[in-house]
Design goal:
By secondary structure, the chain is an alpha/beta fold. Helix content is about 40%, strand content about 15%. The protein has two domains: about 230 residues, TIM Barrel; about 60 residues, Four Helix Bundle (Hemerythrin (Met), subunit A), CATH 1.20.120. α1 packs antiparallel against α13, α4 packs across α6 and α6 packs parallel to α7.
């Protein structure tokens, strides 16, 4: 098993959980923080217009336990992004991240997300505007290219521009985004992964920090990637199999995990859940992020079924979760993880 040395100082972005719409809300992030002290957590993408004109507390509020936490912004107007970034920092976010990777039609209509891969000069202007008004890191998450672009030219052009504008860190989803002909869901799976392209970018940029994203499902894969780049960003697997995060601190940072199992994680999460219920929250809003716990264990299906049936009730108490956990066997040895063909 690989461990970090005492003299090694890993990048703050050595492991992060990707921003995911409708998934990485404040309850999800609070739960993920129970599993790892060091993972960098990201908000769902929030548009500049929503922040400037909307309910900021609802959109941006978070619990202090979530630090370090980044706010991901969607937009393409430098002044609006600067204002939204300043507001985000006033709320206490530790990083501002610009979305240059989302391929949805709604995002394209708003001239932000992956379509900005075609406008590296504008992205750089946006980064510079945010850097001028905030002291926290400003970062960019992008694709390797879109549609007919040459991925060598497109990614280098974007990286060089944002680096010159002061971008502190670049996260690259190692797939093209096909804005013509593929849905957002298809764009997460159909375009082939090209990890070597991201490695080449990192090697060309030298000490400039680059992280890789896309199709990463195991800690072994994370360890392999950080031999080539500065960090990994894991999305759906971290959500669907949250116990993956138990390996982050010991394997990537050389530190003890805050809890040793999903069972301990649930117990540690209970005080947060109790506070939220007392404040008028609903149990389902929190337990929906925990359905991936206990994968493979006898009783895991019963755990999920119990929560799906009872936690959705409006006044469901915390005891519903405890009853669900009681259905899961604590006596179990996991099988070795299956090979991930995407990582080949």
């Amino acid at each position: 098993m690989q461990t970090t040395s005492q003299t090694f100082v890993p990048s703050p972005w050595r492991f992060s959980v990707a921003p995911m719409m409708d998934w990485t809300d404040r309850h999800c992030r609070a739960f993920h923080r129970i599993l790892s002290r060091r993972a960098r957590l990201y908000s769902e993408m929030v548009t500049t217009g929503a922040i400037i004109h909307g309910d900021r507390q609802r959109l941006l509020g978070f619990d202090a336990c979530e630090h370090p936490i980044a706010l991901q912004l969607g937009g393409s107007d430098p002044q609006a992004l600067a204002e939204a970034a300043r507001i985000g920092v006033d709320f206490g976010y530790d990083e501002i991240n610009l979305n240059v990777g989302c391929p949805s039609d709604r995002v394209q209509d708003g001239r932000f997300g992956a379509c900005l891969m075609r406008e590296p000069a504008l992205v750089a202007e946006c980064v510079a505007a945010m850097k001028a008004v905030v002291a926290v890191p400003v970062t960019v998450k992008c694709r390797i290219g879109v549609d007919e672009q040459d991925v060598e030219e497109a990614l280098d052009a974007l990286a060089d521009r944002v680096m010159a504008a002061g971008c502190d860190h670049l996260v690259v989803h190692a797939r093209k985004a096909w804005l013509k002909g593929l849905s957002p869901k298809e764009n997460r799976d159909i375009p082939p992964l090209d990890y070597p392209r991201v490695y080449r970018l990192k090697h060309r940029l030298g000490n400039y920090p680059v992280a890789i994203n896309g199709g990463i499902r195991t800690m072994d894969e994370c360890l392999a990637h950080v031999g080539e780049v500065d960090g990994v960003m894991v999305g759906r697997e971290a959500y669907h199999n949250p116990e993956l995060l138990l390996g982050v601190d010991p394997l990537l940072f050389g530190q003890e995990a805050p809890v040793s199992s999903g069972f301990e994680a649930v117990e540690a999460y209970e005080p947060y859940m109790a506070r939220q219920l007392e404040a008028g929250g609903h149990l389902h809003g929190m337990t929906r992020h925990m359905l991936g716990l206990f994968q493979g264990r006898p009783g895991a299906r019963a755990f999920r079924r119990h929560l799906a049936t009872h936690a959705v009730k409006r006044d469901a108490p915390l005891s519903v979760l405890r009853d669900a956990v009681a259905l899961v066997s604590r006596e179990w040895t996991p099988e070795p993880p299956a090979h991930n063909p995407d990582s080949a």
